[in-house]
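#struct-help
A.M.: can someone run this one for me? Single chain, 269 residues.
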Amino acid sequence: MKFFKRNYSDFSIPKIEPVKTYENADTQKLQILNENKNKSGIYQWKNIETGKTYVGSATNLSNRFYIYYSLLSIKKILNKSKSRILSAILKYGYSQFSLEILEYCDSKNATKREQYYINLLKPEYNILQQAGSRLGSIHTIEAGAKMTGRKLSEETRTQMSKTKLGLQAGEKHPMFGKLHSKDTLAKMSKSKIGEKNPMFNKKHSDEIKQKIRKTKNISIEVLNIKTGEIKIYSSGKEASTSLCCSPSTIVKYTKNGKVFNGIYKLRKI
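D.P.: on it. Structure tokens below:
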């Protein structure tokens, strides 16, 4: 008679058949982003090495995954609060994680379904066992303030508003992932003629003038990190007109490598 060693750990986690499974979150990045555009549902990150998991939900999965794939966004969130899953991604790397879509559902039911899976799977990376914690960042800051009775500073509130628009709820912003049409740009230009122009009767400093001159003879590549679309502008001035910002801003973002408005990655070519 043969005796087989039973692995009781196999019975501790309920068997669930995900709608989609991505075995390598690193090599399948583009597939993950493209296949989940405008879809609402529940997802699960799984650490291949440790077996630990994280369950979350989003009304637009692709937009949520863009946050996970943005090191800048991760660092901003971790600067404000703790997040086990984001810390683990930084520690182990994307190649050590698989990503599962547990189910697609109506956006109205996303939080309810997320709570169902949290109760069922008991994911180790979820700091709060309550659905809708928003990666453990903005929600934690606001909830902490309410529990302690303290008031948030004006600076903190401003930063939270910017984060909600650019990082976590960017899809709710009317211009998220969009460029102004030529007709809109023309109207905007007309609205800033004469006294309506913020620079009316003002002069640029020598430093600003030097920055503007630098943008005239270079081409600018603008990558929309949400859609993957790339546009090439013949000059910094042309890029600044399209993105509705100053030429000096174009210079700034091509140098520091940061994401402009939470959407656009700029570089000189």
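A.M.: thanks! The chain is about 40% helix and 15% strand.
D.P.: also worth noting: The first strand starts at residue 20 and ends at 22.
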